[in-house]
Amino acid sequence: MARPIWIKRSLFNSKAFRSLSRWGLLVLFDFYKKRSMKELKKKDGRGTEWVIKNNGQIVYPYSEAERGGICRRNFRNAIDELIDKGFLEINHPGGGGKKGDLTTYFIRDEWENYGSEKKFTPLKKREPDTREGRGWAAIWNDPKQRAKLLDKRRAKLHDKRKVQSSV
């Protein structure tokens, strides 16, 4: 049986929610699915309130987003958008997937102040990857590597043209 997702009614009419991108909405609802709620008695003894039991320990890795149909770039942009608008905050910035050190997140209610005089500044933002010598940039920024890559491309293109002209 599927568990329900509880959302504040005021969220739907908020400026922050209405200004979210498509990917921001999808990622936000994924975060809401990952939270565990528990009911606590209020401090004044009158009634109860719901709190997030696993807040600060919520993990949503890039690989899981990709399995859900969200590419890495869109997922990264959605996380940044949700942080800027007060929906999320990073508790612990992870070190990467292979290390097993994953980023953990807080779900926040600072979206209520979005667009008002009260400015929300998150405690921790996602830090951009500053590692050098990795991925496409490492090849493209090195002139020798770049020349080799372009030569391979030209050779493939030349071979294709030979095959097409001989047919």
List keywords for this structure.
167 residues; alpha+beta; 2 domains; 13% strand; elongated
Structural write-up:
The chain folds into 2 domains: 9-130, Arc Repressor Mutant, subunit A (Orthogonal Bundle); 132-167. The protein starts with 14 loop residues before the first helix and ends with a helix. A 3-stranded antiparallel sheet has the order 3-5-4. The protein has a two-stranded antiparallel sheet with strand order 1-2. α2 packs across α4 (72-84) and α5 crosses α6 (143-166). The chain has helices spanning 15-18, 22-34, 62-67, 72-84, 135-141, 143-166, and strands spanning 37-41, 48-52, 58-59, 88-92, 104-107. It is an alpha+beta fold. It is elongated. The protein has 6 helices and 5 strands.
Brief overview:
The protein has 167 residues and is an alpha+beta fold. Helix content is 40%, strand content 13%.
Largest sheet: 3 strands, antiparallel
> Which fold name fills CATH's third level, the topology of the largest domain?
Arc Repressor Mutant, subunit A
Number-wise, the strands total: 5
Average of per-residue pLDDT values:
81
CATH top level of the largest domain?
Answer: Mainly Alpha
Q: Could you give the order of strands across the largest sheet?
A: 3-5-4
Radius of gyration: 23 Å
Residue stretches low in confidence (pLDDT < 50, at least 5 long) are none
Question: Which secondary structure elements does this structure contain, and how are they paired or packed?
Answer:
Layout: H1 15-18, H2 22-34, E1 37-41, E2 48-52, E3 58-59, H3 62-67, H4 72-84, E4 88-92, E5 104-107, H5 135-141, H6 143-166
Antiparallel strand pairs: 1-2, 3-5, 4-5
